[in-house]
Amino acid sequence: MISAGLDIGSRTIALVELNNLETVRSDLVDTGYSPLETARALLATLPPGATITATGYGRHAAKADFAHRVVTEIKAHALGVGHFVPDARTVLDIGGQDTKVILLDGLGNLEDFQMNDKCAAGTGKFLEVMAGALGYITVEEFGRESLLGSPGTKISSMCTVFAESEAVSLMHKGVDRRDIGWALHASVVERTMGLLQRVGYQTPLVFTGGVAMNPCILTMLRKQVKGLVVVPENPQLIGALGAALA
Amino acid sequence: MATDYRKMWDKIGLDLDAHGQLMQVLPPTYKDVYLSQSNRPDSMEYFDFVVSEIHGLRIQELQEHKSNGGKVIGTFCVFVPEEIIRAAGAICIGLCSGVEIGAAQAEKVLPRNVCPLIKSFMGFKLAKVCPYFESCDMVVGETTCDGKKKAFEILNDYVPVHVMETPQMKREKDRALWRSEVQDFVVRVEEYTGNQINLENIQRSIKDVNNKRLALLRLAGLRKQNPAPISGKDSLLIEQIAMYDDVERFTLKVNELCDELETRVQGNNGVHAADAPRIIVTGTPMAIPNWKVPHIIESAGAVIVAEELCTGLRYFENTVAENGTNLDQSIDAIAERYLGINCACFTPNEGRMEKLVRLAKEYNADGIIHCSLAFCDPYLIEANRVEKVLKEHGIPLLKIETDYGQEDTGQLQTRVEAFLEMIR
How close, in Å, is residue A121 to chain B by CA atoms? Predict the structure, then answer.
């Protein structure tokens, strides 16, 4: 039986195709300006008869168009993480425009969850904007370089617009951009820790989403979380995998 | 609206352009949220009609009442005793609104970050787009929260406001204060209307308003059935209309609807599948036309079975004792009934937690959604107490904070759907 999971996020679309629970194909592309068209192009080579389950912000639009079923990102991540780390107790997913913390009972069942408020502060989008403000071409470079920065500089605003102007005025003062980057990453981690503490996180904690590939965030998070933090091999595909498993 | 009411609106003093824009928003929203529902009870036709005539026929009735020498008194809270207004021959109209309008005007006198309900009623008044507001010669405020309390001082620049002091605790001295506030209100209403309140008219008024509450309680009782015979959205609409419709006609129509629902229950004819998750909504009032969160909840496949809200059970769950043998006793009975409301302005407010636990059992609810308006400190903070008690009783809870804007619909949808996945 072929089952496909499609995670239509704000920044990327992920597809995982399972044949009797074995991954036979996985893809990750930019969402682009027409999420449904991008998704349809990904699905073009899918074998006929495959069950398509959509998740992510575009799930309902996909259901109206071609998907057979929908699950929320929350459930999809719980299932996807459970596949890799069956005894996981917490999932932290930082995506393009939201942050989710999901508590699991250790048997794969959802216990509780929290999401950031409507503003995208502290998410992938925040880091992307800040990378641009500091003159980095890619977010990867921004993460790598910021890890080399030193503590001491502080960004106090979590609003993307205000934080950007804080970063700009620090640059004008001559502060090293790696130190500013360090401060920006620290502010994201501080906010994330707040969310984790609000739900009373347990470990093992599995970190997913595009931001899980940022070495600076991961290093800072590992310093603050008491216990094991695991990042799966393809953290951006976990939602799609979970949808395929749903 | 079939009839052209522009002449009437102009005479009342509305800003016709701004009002026209407001009236364009409502019909498409109503179509999406209400008329798209399947298998609605036929008796909803009356309530659909009332909404379609929201600024038409009902306003015409109020104007006729006024031209016959009657008064219209506006209120913003379920604490203001409708019985007293009605006994003096005046019509009581709930003025709270659930749509962001006139924000720019409101922000001339209010801070930007303030409760959307407060900003909305101030905006309605300043932008001159609410014919109900413009039909009121007096409005009644209360001291339930700091935001409203201070906003009423400003509102008094535009329309006379009588403010009732609602106590913050429920001790005997607080009850005494509230009784004296209700007594003062009687005098104020008598002065204002020129009509004397006596045992006869207060008893009749108590009975009329009790009948309205009993009809709403009957409706609430029918929703305990599984499958629920009516949607939560339709029920909320009726509870919103209760705030401004003619009391006797409304009571009759709600009872007619209940007759139909009883037949539905016998035929096991529900609006949602019998296995749909049953949800209780609690928190801040959802004033018309704020249907945002209920629409998200029911579109996700759940059915709302009760509203522990001011636009809900808090408005109708207790009736006034009808056995007063003199005017003072009747007025005291009114005061007593109103102090039974479990508003988050009280400290402590354990009655609300106990109520929620009891409701979850009575209505066989699978979960509770706590929905609070942004900047509403009393409810946002009390959500912590609610969470604690519900956890002790193993009742799943989702907390939502939102306003009248639509930009967070996607996030709210995800949260609500995930909550339903969790409790299914």
Answer: 14
Count CB pairs under 8 A between chains A and B. 34
Tell me which chain B residues have a C-beta less than 8 angstroms from the C-beta of A75.
418, 421
Q: Which residue in this structure is represented by tokens 């009687």?
A: B186
Query: B103 or B315, which is more confident?
Result: B315
Does residue B227 contact residue B274 with C-beta atoms inside 8 Å? yes
Flag whether residue B399 sits within 8 Å of chain A, measured between CB atoms.
no
**Is the Cβ–Cβ distance between B236 and B291 less than 8 Å?**
yes
Domains and their CATH numbers in chain B: 6-197 (3.40.50.11890)
Structure tokens at B255: 């009872």
B411/A74 touch (CB, cutoff 8 Å), yes or no: no
Q: Are A184 and A136 in contact (CB under 8 A)?
A: no
ipTM of the prediction greater than 0.85, yes or no: yes
Q: pTM value?
A: 0.93
pLDDT at A98 over 90: no
Question: Are A115 and B411 in contact (CB < 8 Å)?
Answer: yes
Is residue A118 scored above 70 in pLDDT?
no
Asked if A123 contacts A98 with a C-beta cutoff of 8 angstroms, the reply is: yes
Q: Which amino acid is at B156?
A: N
Interface contact B174, partner A, CB < 8 A: no
- Set of chain A residues whose Cβ sits within 8 Å of the Cβ of B414: 57, 72-74, 115
**Contact flag B421-A71 (C-beta cutoff 8 Å):** yes
